[in-house]
Design goal:
single chain; 333 residues; alpha+beta; Rieske Iron-sulfur Protein; 7-stranded antiparallel β-sheet; globular; binds FE2/S2 (inorganic) cluster
């Protein structure tokens, strides 16, 4: 499957108003526009006439108009040239949907299935988006191991004293990989414990995830147990993190954040959501900063000195090449 045939989340729905927007995805520029009827169009951001960016144009009715000579595009890819009406050109288009507050696209001729995730009984804390100056593989590497949590993160994960004792298991399937981690929650200042709905320093912290490859995303299940009673804490997080290549050297991450019903819906909207978002976003910014400082972002795995948490990296690479890139000859394994 070619990259643009997978469903990719691109921007939050409320970002697209009357004005068309250009987004970069898999090395291509794509224009998104909302028609008067509310339909979302997505086309390559290039006028088939003489190459003008369609995103510099405007929407009229159900069409986007190229600002150069006024050619008009429907979201299905039909083009009308006012100056040469008999021409009837056609361009490739994308299928679009709005789901979970985000616009998703895939090539119109693709049969890829939508990456549905089950978040029943969870409350949504919205989406967090970051653009990272690092290739897709390196970004996925970072979110596929917890060894970096003591040194990279502030509150999330395990301490450097306990990291060697964290139990990690990996299970591979044809089209996905699962990783389970169990260890001791690192120190959390008392105020953070309170804000995090009584998760305690020293709790058992479970960080389990499954990664899928069409498109590439990981579903994290994070929860805590009191080490004495073995009872779960109230807070449980479900984080769905999409890894979206913008180009060969840049990756966008979009994280859909869900939390267990720690409080009622209204209080969650007013208090829980901003708290959960603040802490998760803080940790994502640290991931971005560390990734952008890797000096050699071309190095293959066989030239790295890998540790006990890194076996998953090769499993991910194999599936990225086979399922996502459809290119088993790629050497970066
Ligand atoms: S370049 Fe778009 S109409 Fe001419
Ligand atoms: Fe991290």
């Amino acid at each position: 499957m070619k990259l643009l045939q997978h469903w990719h989340p691109v921007i939050e729905s409320n970002t697209l108003k009357k004005k068309p927007i250009s987004v970069n995805l898999c090395g291509k520029e794509i224009v998104l526009f909302r028609t008067s009827g509310g339909e979302i169009g997505a086309l390559y951001n290039r006028c088939c006439h003489r190459g003008m960016r369609l995103s510099c144009g405007w929407v009229e009715g159900e069409e986007i108009v190229c600002p150069y000579h006024g050619w008009r595009y429907k979201s299905c890819g039909k083009v009308f040239s006012p100056g040469t009406p008999k021409l009837n050109p056609r361009v490739s288009s994308f299928t679009t949907v709005e789901r979970h507050g985000v616009i998703w696209i895939k090539s119109a001729d693709s049969t890829a299935t939508f990456p549905d995730f089950n978040v029943e009984n969870y409350l949504s804390a919205g989406v967090l988006t970051h653009e990272i100056q690092a290739p897709l593989e390196f970004v996925l590497d970072n979110f596929s191991e917890i060894e970096h949590t003591p040194s990279t993160h502030t509150y999330f994960g395990y301490s450097s004293e306990d990291i060697s004792k964290v139990q990690t298991t990996v299970k591979t399937k044809d089209n996905s990989v699962c990783v389970n981690n169990k260890g001791i929650q690192r120190y959390l200042p008392p105020i953070v414990q309170k804000l995090f709905f009584n998760v305690h320093s020293g709790d058992w912290f479970f960080d389990n995830w499954e990664t899928f490859f069409s498109p590439i995303y990981s579903v994290y299940d994070q929860f805590w147990l009191d080490t004495v009673t073995e009872k779960p804490r109230k807070l449980r997080l479900k984080l769905i993190l999409f890894f979206i290549p913008i180009s060969e050297t840049q990756t966008r991450i979009m994280m859909f954040v869900f939390a267990s019903r720690v409080v009622n819906k209204l209080i969650f909207q007013l208090l829980g959501k901003p708290i959960v978002r603040f802490f998760i976003n803080h940790e994502l910014i640290l991931d971005k900063a560390i990734l952008e400082n890797i000096i050699d972002k071309d190095i293959p795995l066989n030239q790295m000195q890998l540790g006990r948490f890194d076996g998953i990296l090769a499993e991910n690479r194999k599936r990225i090449n086979r399922i996502y890139r459809n290119d088993s000859s790629r050497v970066n394994v």
